[in-house]
Specification:
The protein has one helix spanning 2-44, and strands at residues 49-55, 61-67. The chain is of the alpha+beta class and 70 residues long. Strands 1-2 form a two-stranded antiparallel ribbon. Strand 1 (49-55) and strand 2 (61-67) form a beta hairpin. The longest helix is centred in the first third of the chain and has 43 residues, at 2-44. It is flat.
């Protein structure tokens, strides 16, 4: 019974840490994404995001959105 209780708390603590670390990293990652997007726009002049066809599950063709240069 104690091991189930302990593993539950360990799981909750790990999940909470994952969420908090992700939220803390988000502003830094957004800055990097914006800077890279601006660099792509200046260098290439093309769109920052582009769509491409990909083959998905059951060989269905899907549109995928990509960040970067074609």
């Amino acid at each position: 019974d104690k091991s189930n209780s302990k593993s539950f708390y360990v799981t909750v603590v790990k999940r909470t840490a994952d969420i908090l670390i992700g939220l803390a990293a988000l502003p830094f990652l957004l800055v990097v994404i914006v800077v890279v997007g601006i660099a792509i726009k200046i260098d290439d002049g093309g769109p920052i995001f582009y769509k491409a066809k990909r083959i998905g599950k059951d060989f269905q063709e899907e549109d995928s959105l990509f960040f970067g240069m074609e």
